[in-house]
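Retro notes (design track)

What went well: tokenization of the new backbones is finally stable.
What didn't: we kept losing track of which sequence belonged to which structure.
Fix going forward: every design gets posted as structure first, then sequence, in one message. First example under the new rule, 753 residues:
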């Protein structure tokens, strides 16, 4: 009789990946023990150089094992990510260990390494649902595998380490102990006192020498600090007798019918709801991939047609015909907004000939387009949405099959692929289209118009296509209106900010800083933050008398902000835009030198004490005069008074020249300009060029003669593909001839636009 199971009433939860939020990952590395400590290795798994298997800290193991960590992504029935899990490298030639539930069944699987490199799984090398183990194969060489521990060498009470991404937090590490070795439902498991969460499943359980003793796969639903791992002995048994399944046999969901379609040159072709889709670059030259229809074409003349939609019009995908089943074929397809007819006679560009390339208004970017070719003995004619767009007398290739092609990183969808002696016309009569469009206009004005719906229902397929066009038109107008609303708001902020700054030293620094924040955040309630600063000043006034020395008031402000209320300099997230928005600095009590300095200056002012800001290279400080001596305060360093040498060191550390005495106090206008420069720099670094343009416009509203900002605006317009707007700023520079700008090079740039 089997002994009673003490865990019969403990509910176990497998960390499966059937929901997108269960993001799983794990980490491991190769670890080489002393020669006399190496376990038997009949599979050549541990033949890589590595680190001696002496006890090491958790930090050391975490740092050295990341390179062998992979993310395992499973695709669902809709082609979207259904779950993400973890695994680790088993061999240098591409074997990956994980849990079977991580990969699902009949699902495409992608492996991603820490450096972002991705691989498609080419085969399920071995798998066992009962053991919940899977070994995957990818086409990769020179990988760094983990060292596997000798089976059953782990003991109760041993220290162990797990790495993974609990709740999607990648490369997390946790340390615990082995609580016991259990038999649960006839399966050997390692019980561990580690808080396993979704994201650990499939990851390795490591000892303090970095060797793998198991794969994490279950947690208790009753207690957080109880988990289980599949022992490495089960993994080795699976390796001894692999039951390899190639991916073309593993995959069933979305697979093309091989009796109808043959794919060549990689990429991922799928079929669903009557549509064929393709993603990922092919492995042919230029990312070419083919999907050849296996039907025999009718005798010439014949026609081939399909409807196609591209994810990005910079890409290329479309029809092929007269294909020899390999590198030779014609292609008729949209490419970078043009329609192209190409003869392909080999594997590279030297054997490709572009026969015709035309730009046509018949092609509708971003929409479904019906493309069709008519092939005759001495002529090829191309049509787009029923309109003839090109004709070629090329007849080099004759005799073959037709199908689909894609190039580069294009993602495309195809539907209604047809071949025949003469295909039904691509478009309905103009009178029919006109009637349907009249109904659509009625619906645009009144979506509840039942008569319009009834009028469209009689020709549903064409109506749907025309409705999609109207939806796109309305969406474009909506975006244009949203952009106009943003321009109206920002123009209003510009006017208010300039009006406030024109008051010079009588301007309100807090108002200016809050207007800058409202420039990006229209819903900001500025009055609430004025009230908050007044409240803070009121509390401070109770701590220090009005006639107290300035240094006492400064100390009181520092204590109030940094000790009592938790304000601090932003170090881990310094370049976050929130640090430049005074309202968010107050909300989060975190900021950069200039925004913390503004708070310091304003609170001092409400205590009848004048502090000035000083813009040093790379840093901003405040100061006051005492007995003809300048006292410098660093608000970023919790209001610390700086010695002259410390202030000079700041200047030198950022490549500045001179000493603190060479830097005069900054006026309020200069402070706000510096804040805008900060935001502009951050947005350019983030490649948010539209935001950067908004900041440049603001800077030019403050100082219309700032030549550097005219140059910045020209370059940003060029980055956004708006050459005419760039020319206006370049022409301003040519007229003003400012110092410090190489006008000759700008003239060369201008002449190329």
């Amino acid at each position: 009789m089997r002994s009673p199971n003490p865990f019969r009433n403990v509910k176990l939860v497998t960390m499966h990946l059937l929901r997108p939020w269960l993001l799983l990952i794990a980490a491991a590395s190769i670890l080489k023990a002393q020669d006399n400590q190496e376990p038997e290795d009949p599979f050549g798994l541990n033949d890589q150089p590595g680190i001696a298997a002496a006890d090491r800290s958790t930090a050391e193991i975490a740092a050295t094992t990341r390179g062998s960590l992979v993310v395992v992504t499973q695709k669902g029935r809709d082609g979207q990510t259904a779950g993400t899990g973890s695994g680790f490298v088993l061999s240098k030639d591409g074997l990956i260990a994980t849990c079977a539930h991580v990969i699902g069944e009949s699902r495409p699987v992608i492996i991603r390494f820490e450096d972002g490199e991705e691989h498609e799984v080419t085969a399920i090398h071995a798998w066992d649902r009962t053991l919940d183990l899977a070994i995957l194969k990818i086409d990769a060489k020179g990988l760094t595998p983990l060292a596997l521990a000798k089976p059953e060498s782990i003991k109760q009470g041993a220290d162990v380490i797990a790495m993974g991404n609990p709740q999607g937090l990648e490369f997390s590490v946790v340390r615990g102990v082995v609580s016991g070795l259990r038999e649960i439902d006839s399966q050997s498991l390692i019980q561990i006192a580690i808080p396993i969460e979704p994201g650990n499943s499939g990851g390795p359980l490591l000892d303090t020498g970095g060797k793998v003793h198991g794969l994490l796969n279950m947690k208790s639903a009753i207690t957080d600090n109880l988990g289980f791992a599949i022992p490495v002995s089960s993994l080795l048994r699976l390796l001894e007798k692999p039951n390899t399944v190639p991916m073309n046999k593993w995959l069933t969901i979305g697979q093309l019918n091989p009796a109808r379609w043959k794919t060549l040159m990689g990429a991922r072709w799928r079929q669903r709801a009557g549509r064929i889709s393709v993603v990922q670059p092919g492995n042919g030259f230029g990312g070419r991939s083919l999907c050849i229809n296996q039907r025999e074409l009718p005798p010439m003349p014949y026609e081939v047609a399909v409807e196609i939609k591209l994810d990005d019009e910079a890409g290329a995908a479309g029809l092929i015909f007269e294909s020899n089943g390999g590198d030779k074929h014609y292609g008729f397809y949209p490419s970078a907004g043009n329609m192209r007819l190409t003869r392909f006679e080999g594997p590279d560009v030297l054997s490709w000939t572009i026969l015709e390339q035309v730009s046509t208004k018949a092609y509708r970017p971003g929409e479904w387009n019906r493309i069709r070719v008519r092939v005759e003995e001495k002529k090829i004619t191309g049509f787009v949405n029923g309109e003839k767009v090109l004709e070629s007398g090329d007849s080099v290739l004759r005799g073959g099959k037709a199908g689909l092609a894609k190039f580069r990183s294009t993602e495309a969808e195809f539907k209604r692929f047809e071949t025949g002696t003469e295909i039904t016309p691509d478009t309905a009569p103009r009178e029919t289209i006109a009637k349907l469009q009249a109904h659509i206009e009625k619906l645009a004005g009144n979506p509840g118009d039942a008569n319009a719906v009834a009028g469209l229902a009689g020709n549903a397929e064409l109506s749907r296509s025309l409705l999609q066009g109207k939806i796109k038109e309305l969406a474009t107008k909506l975006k244009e209106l949203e952009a106009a609303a943003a321009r109206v708001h920002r123009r209003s902020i510009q006017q208010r900010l300039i009006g406030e700054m024109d008051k010079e030293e009588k301007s309100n620094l807090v108002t200016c800083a809050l207007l800058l924040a409202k420039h990006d955040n229209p819903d900001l309630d500025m009055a609430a933050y004025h009230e908050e600063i007044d409240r803070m000043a009121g509390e401070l006034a109770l701590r220090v008398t009005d006639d107290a020395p300035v240094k006492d008031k400064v100390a009181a402000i520092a204590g109030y902000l940094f000790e009592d209320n938790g304000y601090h300099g932003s170090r881990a997230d310094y370049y976050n835009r929130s640090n430049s928005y005074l309202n968010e600095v107050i909300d989060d009590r975190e900021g950069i030198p200039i925004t913390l300095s503004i708070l310091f200056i304003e609170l001092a002012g409400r205590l009848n004490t004048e502090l000035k800001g000083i813009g040093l290279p790379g840093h901003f400080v405040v100061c006051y005069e005492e007995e003809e001596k300048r006292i410098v305060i660093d608000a970023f360093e919790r209001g610390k008074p700086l010695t002259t040498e410390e202030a000079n060191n700041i200047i030198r550390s950022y490549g500045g020249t001179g000493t603190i005495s060479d830097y005069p106090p900054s006026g309020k206008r200069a402070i706000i300009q510096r804040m805008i420069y900060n935001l502009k720099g951050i947005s350019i670094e983030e490649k948010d060029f539209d935001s950067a343009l908004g900041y440049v416009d603001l800077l030019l509203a403050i100082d219309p003669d700032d030549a550097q900002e005219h140059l910045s605006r020209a370059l940003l317009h060029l980055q956004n593909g708006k050459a005419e707007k760039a020319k206006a700023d370049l022409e301003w520079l040519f007229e003003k001839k400012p110092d410090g700008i190489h006008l000759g090079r700008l003239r060369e740039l201008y002449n190329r636009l």
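Added context from the reviewer: Residues 261-420 form a domain with the Jelly Rolls fold (CATH 2.60.120.560).
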